[in-house]
Amino acid sequence: MDPKCQCLELNDGHFIPILGFGTYAPEEVPKSEALEVTKFAIDVGFRHIDCAHLYQNEEQVGQAIRSKIADGTVKREDIFYTSKLWSTFLRPELVQPALEKSLKNLQLDYVDLYIIHFPAALKPGEELFPKDENGKMIFDTVDLCRTWEVLEKCKDAGLAKSIGVSNFNRKQLEKILNKPGLKYKPVCNQVECHPYLNQSKLLDFCKSNDIVLVAYGALGSQRLKDWVNPSYPILLEDPVLCAIAKKHKQTPALIALRYQMQRGVVVLAKSYNKKRIKENMQVLDFELTPEDMKAIDGLNSNVRYYDLLFISDHPDYPYSEEY
């Protein structure tokens, strides 16, 4: 990795840049924009790119990475690229083909990190959200320990440098950590995390097991119609965050991102606005005081923007537990 890059060491010896660029965009955003903004993000210094099969833009994001390698801006080893295994591919026999499909779309030889996107399995097939005639999600039953064993094989085969999970609660993590014959621990757990849902208990649990917490939704949420509870307060309008921002002459978004970094959390900054993408890099240039950190800790109110209630009756739905 680039020596300028501020990184954390993962439990398998690889390094992850502490600031990542999130590439998800709502359906109405043209796919071509993913190409443009990812190239721009690399130009302004982002080296960690977070994507997923679910986002349906890996082709464009891969193209952006390859064009920045071709023009000499970066080498492949400077980039830390994450992809995710979607819920319709959790059956063991579907795991490696799903990763190979992502690699084919990306036109890359390997991903730096491959993670289980969500612990609740859905019916396999072309549909990302398979529904029955009443519009109800069709679930699948998969033992995630078996899924994990195939991820371990993908790491051994060199298709993924590191493997991890996302949206797992403590019990689900423990299931993998306590699996007989475990070869590799998950290097990370990527979860929604921001001052209103600071995940301090899950963070402590992850740290105690040498698992890095990666924060998505770190700026609260874009108001995505099907995904997000619209009645919640807007994080970036919070008076405490705004006051700290004013004091440091930074934006509330930068305060929210910096907060995660100082807790040892890898943070994803998702924006399709070039001005803000560039601005988000400034998070590396200032520091919050212990008092600031304590004030932001005090905002925790267990507001989960991405509650995914449409699968809340799945036996592996992760958010029924306290953490």
UniProtKB/TrEMBL annotation:
Keywords: NADP, Oxidoreductase. Substrate binds at H117. The active site is at Y55. The record marks K84 as: Lowers pKa of active site Tyr. InterPro entries: AKR, AKR1C, Aldo/ket_reductase_CS, NAD(P)_OxRdtase_dom_sf, NADP_OxRdtase_dom. The keyword Lipid metabolism does not apply. Residues 19-300 form the NADP-dependent oxidoreductase domain. One of its GO terms (molecular function) is oxidoreductase activity. Belongs to the aldo/keto reductase family. PANTHER family: ALDO/KETO REDUCTASE. This is Dihydrodiol dehydrogenase 3. It comes from Neophocaena asiaeorientalis asiaeorientalis (Yangtze finless porpoise).
